[in-house]
Design a protein that fits this description.
Blueprint (H helix, E strand, L loop, with lengths): L5 H11 L11 E5 L26 H13 L4 E5 L7 H11 L5 E7 L9 H10 L11 E5 L7 H14 L6 E9 L4 E2 H13 L7 E6 L19 E2 H5 L7 H4 L6 E4 L4 E3 L11 E4 L5 H9 L2 H8 L12 H4 L3 E2 L2 H16 L15 H4 L3 H4 L5
Parallel strand pairs: 1-2, 1-9, 2-3, 3-4, 4-5, 5-7
Antiparallel strand pairs: 5-6, 8-12, 9-10, 10-11
The structure holds iron/sulfur cluster (SF4) (2 copies).
One iron/sulfur cluster (SF4) binds next to helix 12.
């Protein structure tokens, strides 16, 4: 945090936006700036496409999003992709426009493609000129993903070295998301540490938040206990992990978050594999305020929010049942539990895809430029 008053300031912002009573108000929306990616990781959780097939949000869409974010007093956004740095113009444009509006960019996710000798320093300069270090609520985070990515680890090491030598942890935080290959359990982050130490000296453990997880086909681990194998773990066990999966390494999630896909669908959770049923509407078809209102009417979201995660649903769906249901991931359990919740309570979630289509031209008139003034 940049200031101890951070939550007072956020609450005051929500009050001014008329959301004082809402129980679900995102602290941060993670949005896909582009679906383009220079890489093609086999287990990509982002639905990324090639540079030719993907698309980036247009200037008009980004202007509209910023106006909508401001309208609900959103304090911060995380920018993801695809790979946001292949849409550099759009990235810098959004950051520059967001500066001073109260909507802070507090996380950038990247595969480090820009960490070459020629591009690293100039890219940092561009980010700073666009306001990267100007946040007043949260210290921004650069999240470097080194799972199946093919970016040379030299690039990633250079970005880390630049960050720790040029900025303090009051300016910029760093995180690394790393995977282990299940065949040997060797984590890629150890390769990165070896390479970093050979080039620059001690690895800056005190500056790096690391999420080290085995995503890939754990079934290949011969000595793994049956109960821990994906697909054989009980839903009851996964339920106790929701919201806390990063707790041992980066601390509890700052919640609530939301995910905005490049097609405009807004989900009430920012997990990669968030179930479709947590999509509450399309921001390119209706105002964010209306979508949040719909999410706030969801009994499922209210129950999960109030209880601090899926564990709250033990009250509704008895353990006798969830202990005998199995699935491969905790967000997979979310999907199963929504169905169970609907059966038991008779309350259904509105599917984003089933929402009525609204002509978007009516929404563009909400843009600040069209109104002749900027929303605060
Ligand atoms: S770099 Fe990231 S967005 Fe691109 S393919 Fe890999 S996981 Fe997907
Ligand atoms: S289980 Fe559901 S609420 Fe929990 S992180 Fe996954 S999608 Fe979000």
């Amino acid at each position: 945090m940049k200031t101890p008053q951070v939550f007072d300031r956020i609450r005051a912002r929500w009050d001014r936006a008329g959301l004082a009573e809402a129980s679900y108000r995102p602290l941060r929306i993670e949005f896909e700036l582009t679906t383009k990616c220079n890489d093609a990781c086999p287990s990509c959780g982002m639905g990324a496409l090639s540079l030719q097939a993907g698309r980036s949000l247009t200037d008009q869409q980004l202007d509209y999003l910023l106006a909508e974010f401001s309208d609900v007093g959103l304090p911060s956004v995380a920018i993801t992709g695809g790979e946001p740095f292949v849409a550099m113009r759009a990235l810098l444009r959004f950051m520059t426009l967001a500066r001073g509006t109260g909507v802070e960019v507090n996380k950038l996710t990247t595969n480090g493609i820009w960490g070459s000798k020629q591009r690293c320093g100039p890219t940092f300069d561009q980010l700073i000129n666009a306001g990267l270090l100007d946040n007043t609520l949260f210290v921004p985070l650069l999240m470097l993903s080194i799972g199946e990515q093919t970016t040379p680890l030299e690039h990633v090491a250079r970005i880390i070295h630049h960050t720790v030598t040029e900025f303090t942890d009051h300016d910029l935080n760093l995180a690394i998301s790393s995977l282990a290959d299940p065949s040997d359990r060797e984590h890629k982050i150890y390769d990165l540490m070896r390479l970093y130490e050979a080039a620059y000296g001690d690895f800056p453990h005190d500056r790096i938040h690391s999420t080290m997880r085995v995503y890939l086909e754990n079934d290949r681990l011969e000595d793994q206990a049956e109960i821990n194998r994906p697909g054989r773990t009980s839903v009851a066990k996964w339920m106790d992990r929701c919201y806390d999966c990063f707790a041992p390494t980066v601390g509890s999630y700052v919640l609530p978050t939301a995910l905005l896909k490049a097609d405009g669908t807004l989900y009430a959770c920012a997990a990669f594999n968030v179930p479709e049923k947590l999509g509450f509407g399309n921001l390119f078809r209706e105002p964010l305020r209306d979508i949040l209102a719909r999410a706030n009417r969801s009994a499922y979201v209210s129950a999960v929010r109030a209880g601090g995660g899926l564990k709250a649903l033990h009250e509704v769906i008895p353990r006798a049942e969830t202990e005998h249901m199995t699935c491969g991931s905790f967000c997979g359990s979310c999907s199963l539990l929504i169905d169970k919740f609907e059966q038991r309570t008779g309350q259904t979630l509105p599917a984003g895809s089933a929402l009525p289509f609204v002509d978007t031209s009516s929404l563009w008139s909400r843009l600040p430029a069209a109104q002749g003034s900027r929303r605060g």
